[in-house]
Amino acid sequence: MKELVCIVCPRGCRLQVDEDNGYAVTGNSCPRGEEYGKNELQHPTRVLTTTVRVTGGVHRRLPVKTSTAIPKDLLFEAMEVANAVSVAAPVQPGQVIVENLLGTGADLVAGRGIEKG
């Protein structure tokens, strides 16, 4: 039996997930907690937030994040990709910086705009 704190909403329910009983979840106050508990143990995912280099802009770094959650075990590899990226200004908010990051279907998108400097 694994114990988790649900992060789906501010309640922070203390979940118990029984791996030996089909990942049965108890302790959740809503159905989203049950889904979170099962997914967290079977195939955990996270949204990656980081920055990439900018050339020719008023700022040198651009905040970016994945458009959807990616498998947790790919986070370090995704960071290597992001660290190798350099984007030229101008950049629009929501602009796709890396399409289909590591074949996950998630795009790395700009979190803000950056004007030419």
Summarize the structure.
The chain has 117 residues and is an alpha+beta fold. Helix content is 19%, strand content 32%.
What does this structure look like?
This protein is α+β, with helices and mostly antiparallel strands and 117 residues long. Helices cover 19% and strands 32% of the residues. The chain has two helices and ten strands; from the N terminus they run E-E-E-H-E-E-E-E-H-E-E-E. It has helices at 31-42, 75-84, and strands at residues 2-5, 14-18, 24-26, 45-46, 49-55, 61-66, 70-71, 86-88, 96-98, 108-110. The strands form three sheets. A five-stranded mixed beta sheet has the order 8-5-6-10-9. It has a three-stranded antiparallel beta sheet with strand order 1-2-3, with helices on one face. A hairpin with an 8-residue loop joins strand 1 (2-5) and strand 2 (14-18). It is elongated, with a radius of gyration of 18 Å. The protein starts with a strand and ends in a 7-residue tail after the last strand. The relative contact order is 0.17. The mean pLDDT is 97.
